[in-house]
Amino acid sequence: MQLKPDQLAAHLQKGLKPLYTLHGDEPLLALEAADAIRAAARSAGHTEREVHHVAGAHFDWSSLLGAASSMSLFAEAKIVEIRIPSGKPGKDGSQALQHYCEHLPEGVVTLVTLPRLDRQQSTSAWFGALDVAGVTLRLDPVERAALPQWLAQRLKAQGQRVAEGEEGQRTLAFFADRVEGNLLAAQQELTKLGLLYPPGALSLEQVEAAVLNVARYSVFKLGEAVLAGQVPRVLRMLEGLRAEGEAAVLVHWTLAEDIRALKRCKDAVAGGKPLPMALRENRIWGAKERLFERALPLLTAGTLEHLLAAAHVCDGLVKGLKHPQWPTDPWAGLQRLALQLAAPMQPAGGGSRRLVLQA
Predict the structure, then answer these.
(1) What are phi and psi of 128, to 5 degrees?
(2) What is the mean pLDDT of residues 94-118?
(3) Measured between alpha carbons, how far is residue 20 from residues 10, 42, 350 in Å?
């Protein structure tokens, strides 16, 4: 049984299941979900807690199975936590987890915590057994587009809200820009607003005065922002990545890989290959697949050749080489490359000046 994070509270009010599996790479949502399950279990009389941390390939799975099967008639009901930070229980662990799910102990609420799983892990026999035997929650980061609504819901839960109309939208957009990629810090900023201001509407000025810039950016999300033509966000992310000490070489690799993949897909389609097949062959899927589908018709073969040449020059910049027509600062070069790629993708009539590719 699979649940969304926002469905967990209502589920727990109806009663506990014997097994819960949390997987994902969003620390705040994982922490909140685990705390909610523990609190519900304690309220139901599960006063004892036992934690098994699976580290490395030499974990003694027999100790877990033995402890679970040794519950006596007069034993305290307990919570058993199985933490697998690698997401790879190994062959013995796979068999042990399947056996455990087939013989769930009486009087025990089991909580399994895992990181984000890849396709092979999420289709494995051991994960399938966990999913069938209990409740599974996937805890993914909140994407930038959904972040304003997430913040609004959290404000509502603490009795606050933003103003109606355009001012409220600007307030939420400002808030989202300041906390993007860092939900733990976002929750701290929400708590701060609850302490600073009374219940009711918050103005843009109040939020601007209170909320710190605690955003954290990913080079992979940068690529998505570039392909979406989100120029202000691209500039903000580049500035943030530089301030965080991210390697310029990695940022360049991300941008260059997208350019090369776009060129391969464009050539494949020009050669008569269907676009879905070209995308699959280049391992483009998920959110990036939709961005590629939109970007490819907007990019001519000549534009892609120009972008490949620009990526080659930028590769030299991040490695210390100079070019007479490019900035000497590698990050300024990365900004120029990112804007050249983002320019054709900007929405027409979006209210911002369309960038012009530099020759």
Answers:
(1) -60, -40
(2) 91
(3) 15, 15, 45
What does the alpha-carbon distance between residue 21 and residue 112 come to, in Å, rounded to a whole number? Answer: 5
CB atoms closer than 10 angstroms to residue 85: 11
Task: Fill in the amino acid letter for 163.
Answer: A
pLDDT, tens digit, 9 for 90 and up, residues 167-223: 999 999 999 998 998 899 999 999 999 999 999 999 999 998 888 878 788 888 899
Helix axes 219-227, 287-295, angle to 10 degrees: 30
| Domain carrying residue 284 | 219-345
Detail the DSSP E strand segments found in the chain: 2-3, 19-23, 48-53, 78-83, 108-114, 135-138, 160-162, 200-202
Q: Is the pLDDT of residue 347 over 80?
A: no
Instruction: Determine contact, residues 80/106, Cβ cutoff 8 Å.
Output: no
Q: How many separate domains does the chain show?
A: 3
What is the CA 184 to chain-centroid distance, rounded? 13
| Distance linking the first and last C-alpha atoms of the chain | 55
* Spatial distance between the Cα atoms of 351 and 349, rounded to a whole number of angstroms: 5
In a domain, 247, yes or no: yes
Element (H, E) at 95: helix 90-102
- Identify which of 111, 102, 99, 116 has the alpha carbon closest to the alpha carbon of residue 135: 111
Q: Looking at residue 185, which CATH number applies to its domain?
A: 1.10.8.60
What are phi and psi for residue 358, nearest 5 degrees? -85, 135
This prediction has a pTM of: 0.70
Torsion angle of alpha carbons 155, 157, 158, 160, nearest 10°?
A: 40
Q: Which residues pair with 19 in a beta bridge?
A: 110
90 Cβ neighbours under 8 A, 6+ residues apart: 57, 59
Of the candidates 254, 218, 23, the one whose C-alpha atom is nearest the C-alpha of residue 119 is 23
DSSP H or E stretch at residue 254: helix 248-270
pLDDT tens digits for range 267-286: 999 999 999 999 989 888 87
